[in-house]
């Protein structure tokens, strides 16, 4: 069907892709990805060939989005991100908005999401939290974002590029007191779930890796006992066995 299909792709384990996703990729006239290399690898892994490939990333300008919109009017177009669910914290949102504004049909094929994987692994209810997403890279904007999160004082989910993982360990420990649950290399054989106090998290030796974390700032005036009751014992580190 001529429309834009948003297709979730694996965040780590390549087998975490749905049958519907594979069928839709095979049937699509055009497949859009963030990077040609990653997109080509995905299609090759499922023996999908003969597709017109397009690119949409942070460097794409409004003219690029307009051109892709025209493809979505009369072709079956599949949009994927480098990993996870497209249209959420990635440039795909701009194409979805453009399609909706022009009454071009859009549908989403659910699947892998680092956020949902982390929430399912918390081992506790997370009825309400603030989604910060990716922190700004620029120093001043980054500090401002941290200050805003501190003022909010509520649990928040944060992400960043893999090479900034060691940096954010120290930043979070210096800006907040409280607890963190951090998923590192989720769904991969060397997956780690770090469930501990922020000061402990800062001391864990971690290299460049994909990650997502939920930070639970310590409430002003809260007691250590109340914190343990709400969020469980601190200092837990689990490794997935292959």
Descriptive overview:
- This protein is an alpha/beta fold and 242 residues long.
- Helices cover 36% and strands 22% of the residues.
- Mean pLDDT is 91; it is low at 223-234.
- It is built from nine helices and eleven strands.
- Helix 3 packs across helix 4.
- The protein is globular and about 55 Å long.
- Strand 6, helix 6 and strand 7 form a beta-alpha-beta unit.
- It folds into two domains: 3-109, Tetrapyrrole methylase, N-terminal domain (Cobalt-precorrin-4 Transmethylase, domain 1, 3-Layer(aba) Sandwich), CATH 3.40.1010.10; 114-239, Tetrapyrrole methylase, C-terminal domain (Methyltransferase, Cobalt-precorrin-4 Transmethylase, Domain 2, 2-Layer Sandwich), CATH 3.30.950.10.
- The protein starts with a strand and ends with a strand.
- A six-stranded mixed sheet has the order 6-7-10-8-9-11.
């Amino acid at each position: 069907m001529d429309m834009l299909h948003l297709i979730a792709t694996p965040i780590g384990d390549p087998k975490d892709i749905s049958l519907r996703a594979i069928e839709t990729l095979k049937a699509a006239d055009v497949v859009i990805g963030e990077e040609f290399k990653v997109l080509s690898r995905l299609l090759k892994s499922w023996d999908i060939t003969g597709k017109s490939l397009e690119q949409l990333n942070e460097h794409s300008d409004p003219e690029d989005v307009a051109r892709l919109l025209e493809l979505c009017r009369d072709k079956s177009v599949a949009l994927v991100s480098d990993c996870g669910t497209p249209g959420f914290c990635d440039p795909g949102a701009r194409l979805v908005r453009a399609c909706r504004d022009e009454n071009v049909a859009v549908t989403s094929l659910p699947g892998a999401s680092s956020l949902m994987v982390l929430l399912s692994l918390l081992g506790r209810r997370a009825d309400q939290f603030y989604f910060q997403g990716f922190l700004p890279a620029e120093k001043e904007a980054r500090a401002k974002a941290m200050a805003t999160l501190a003022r909010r004082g509520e649990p928040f989910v944060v992400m960043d590029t893999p090479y900034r993982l060691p940096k954010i360990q120290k930043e979070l420990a210096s800006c907040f007191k409280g607890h963190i649950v951090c998923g590192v290399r989720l769904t991969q054989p060397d997956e780690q779930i770090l469930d501990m106090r922020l000061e402990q998290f800062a001391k864990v030796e971690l290299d460049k890796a994909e990650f997502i974390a939920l930070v639970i700032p310590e409430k002003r005036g809260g007691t250590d006992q109340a914190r343990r009751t709400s969020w469980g014992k601190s200092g837990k580190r689990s490794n997935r066995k292959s």
